[in-house]
Amino acid sequence: MSRFAYVNGRFVRHGEAAVHIEDRGYQLADGVYEVWAVFGGKLADAAGHFARLWRSLDALKIAHPMSEKALTVVLREAIRRNKVVEGMVYLQVTRGVAPRDHAFPNPAVPPAVVITAKRVDRAVAEAKAAKGQSVVTVPETRWGRCDIKSIGLLPNALAKQVAREHGAVEAWFVDEMGLVTEGASSNAWIVDAEGRLRTRDTQANILRGITRSSLLDVIAEAGLPVAEQPFTVEEAKAAREAFITGAGTLVLPIVRVDGAQIGDGAPGPVATRLRRLYIERAKAAAI
């Protein structure tokens, strides 16, 4: 199947898509991105992702490339052209193309926009969730504005490589106090020894995950105890359950942390239930 990408106002074949050599995203990581899960050809958690996109752009003083209504049309067209029923759509906005200089272009240039979409085999994803996955821990090495969904992801890429080399699906960053902050591309959760769901609060230097936020609504509706409270690696290893959340992983049970077995080594009932409830809610609310 031919794939198509949206690049600065037009759709082109994926293999022919390109950006200018002086795009500030390419040279300076001067940009942001968003990823929507796609269910039934529709955008999941759409409002949350749009709100975070605008917030990230505003934080970096990058102009909004188009209205939310117009962007929704383009995202849907990317999904349609790529015949994605179940999958993901990726958006990247950079400050644009200008002669290389650390300071912003003066006068300002139009922001550059790239959108791609791809299919995800949900059967494979469900099999991975049913098996449970592993994470490893790495020192926190990122900048102080992880709340911005910046494309400057070198520490995250290095952490993901460590995870891959250890046969794990994700790496959890651990700060100087020994507390888990979040994953390289996900938020981290446990069900602690007392049965409470715990995840790092967003006042800390973490990304304000949209799947995380939606799951908190699901948890409230289910009446489960939850605390936005950090946890140590040792608390994670002693937890009843662990899992990660993100647009790519949804709610993914974790059964090993740094090789240590969590609980009985199988996905627990809470994570399994929350994955089902989240997917049901996301499908129902997708646009």
From TrEMBL:
<comment type="similarity">
    <text>Belongs to the class-IV pyridoxal-phosphate-dependent aminotransferase family.</text>
</comment>
<dbReference type="InterPro" id="IPR043131">
    <property type="entry name" value="BCAT-like_N"/>
</dbReference>
<keyword id="KW-0100">Branched-chain amino acid biosynthesis</keyword>
<dbReference type="GO" id="GO:0047810">
    <property type="term" value="F:D-alanine-2-oxoglutarate aminotransferase activity"/>
</dbReference>
<dbReference type="InterPro" id="IPR043132">
    <property type="entry name" value="BCAT-like_C"/>
</dbReference>
<comment type="pathway">
    <text>Amino-acid biosynthesis; L-isoleucine biosynthesis; L-isoleucine from 2-oxobutanoate: step 4/4.</text>
</comment>
<comment type="pathway">
    <text>Amino-acid biosynthesis; L-leucine biosynthesis; L-leucine from 3-methyl-2-oxobutanoate: step 4/4.</text>
</comment>
<dbReference type="Pfam" id="PF01063">
    <property type="entry name" value="Aminotran_4"/>
</dbReference>
<keyword id="KW-0028">Amino-acid biosynthesis</keyword>
<dbReference type="InterPro" id="IPR036038">
    <property type="entry name" value="Aminotransferase-like"/>
</dbReference>
<comment type="function">
    <text>Acts on leucine, isoleucine and valine.</text>
</comment>
<keyword id="KW-0032">Aminotransferase</keyword>
<dbReference type="InterPro" id="IPR050571">
    <property type="entry name" value="Class-IV_PLP-Dep_Aminotrnsfr"/>
</dbReference>
<protein>
    <recommendedName>
        <fullName>Probable branched-chain-amino-acid aminotransferase</fullName>
        <ecNumber>2.6.1.42</ecNumber>
    </recommendedName>
</protein>
<dbReference type="InterPro" id="IPR001544">
    <property type="entry name" value="Aminotrans_IV"/>
</dbReference>
<keyword id="KW-0808">Transferase</keyword>
